[in-house]
């Protein structure tokens, strides 16, 4: 009897905890949606005045440069550069909110074909960089949205190109079967780049978070990893990071294999 009432207490406790977790999950999703709609509205409303500001700055630089002192021209130039940077940030915010609101399709996607598209998309950067792209074995087929899957790889590969100061840079794209059948597949994008200190690792998935001075590794918006994480959430997966400063980083994410249809 004691065992039965203990079991009852434990089960009730577990049910309460589960209920709490579900409530938290719903609350979290609501907050994410609020953030996405805020991003959308804010970025839309910011674009218009920014366009005006950039047009006036261009007009001053192109039509009035000879009337201004060198100092004034330099200030106009700074306004233009800040305007360009602001546009980059606003576009990233818009893109982030679009991804967050997207309704992804769940097609069977051969990731080797996705990778071909990504190589084409990044061809200029891949040609410029000495980076070696390693794919130790063919990638599998997964369930997902072709455009969003390509965006995950494009972001992670371009970061691997950008944040690498080695003489022989490489990036390896691999995957692992799940330990238990039916669990998601694990994918990794590993590089031998500059790495990320443990204390900085949680922050890299936050929007507009950049760890380096703006020009040291090229001026991204700092939204790529936030977008990758938002895409994976949309596809029912997640992403995490292991890294050693000076040695490199490994981004690992999960995706589902297509469900095998049972013949009737
Ligand atoms: P961005 O590259 O535009 O700055 P991301 O969101 O893609 O934005 O990355 C956020 C930050 O995380 C980068 O600014 C950089 O500091 C760090 N980071 C991302 N990928 C890597 C990587 N492969 N190696 C080292 N640092 C990285």
UniProtKB/TrEMBL annotation:
Keywords of this entry = ATP-binding, Chromophore, Kinase, Nucleotide-binding, Photoreceptor protein, Receptor, Sensory transduction, Transferase
* Annotated Histidine kinase domain residues: 41-259
Coverage span on the entire protein: 493 to 756 of 756
Tell me what this protein is called: histidine kinase
Annotated source species: Actomonas aquatica
Q: Where is the signal peptide?
A: none
Alphabetically, the GO molecular function entries are: ATP binding
Q: Which domain of life is it from?
A: Bacteria
Family to which this protein belongs? In the N-terminal section; belongs to the phytochrome family.
């Amino acid at each position: 009897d004691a065992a039965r009432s203990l079991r009852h207490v434990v089960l009730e406790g577990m049910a309460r905890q589960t209920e709490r977790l579900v409530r938290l999950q719903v609350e979290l999703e609501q907050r994410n949606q609020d953030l996405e709609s805020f991003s959308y509205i804010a970025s839309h409303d910011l674009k218009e005045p920014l366009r005006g500001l950039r047009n006036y700055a261009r007009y001053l630089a192109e039509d009035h440069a000879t009337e201004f002192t060198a100092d004034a021209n330099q200030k106009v130039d700074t306004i233009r550069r800040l305007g360009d940077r602001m546009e980059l940030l606003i576009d990233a915010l818009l893109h982030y909110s679009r991804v967050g609101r997207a309704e992804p399709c769940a097609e069977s996607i051969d990731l080797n074909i996705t990778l071909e598209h990504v190589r084409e998309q990044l061809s200029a950067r891949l040609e410029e960089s000495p980076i070696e792209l390693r794919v130790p074995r063919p990638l599998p087929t997964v369930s997902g949205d072709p455009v969003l899957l390509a965006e995950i790889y494009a972001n992670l590969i371009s970061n691997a190109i950008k944040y690498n100061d080695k003489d022989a840079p490489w990036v390896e794209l691999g995957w692992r079967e799940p330990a238990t059948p039916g669990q998601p597949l694990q994918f990794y994008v590993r590089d031998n780049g500059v790495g990320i200190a443990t204390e900085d690792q949680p922050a890299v998935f936050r929007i507009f978070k950049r760890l380096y001075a703006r020009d040291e590794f090229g001026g991204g918006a700092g939204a790529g990893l936030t977008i990758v994480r938002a895409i994976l959430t949309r596809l029912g997966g997640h992403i995490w990071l292991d890294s050693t400063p000076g040695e490199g980083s490994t981004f690992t994410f999960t995706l589902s294999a297509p469900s095998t249809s049972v013949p009737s």
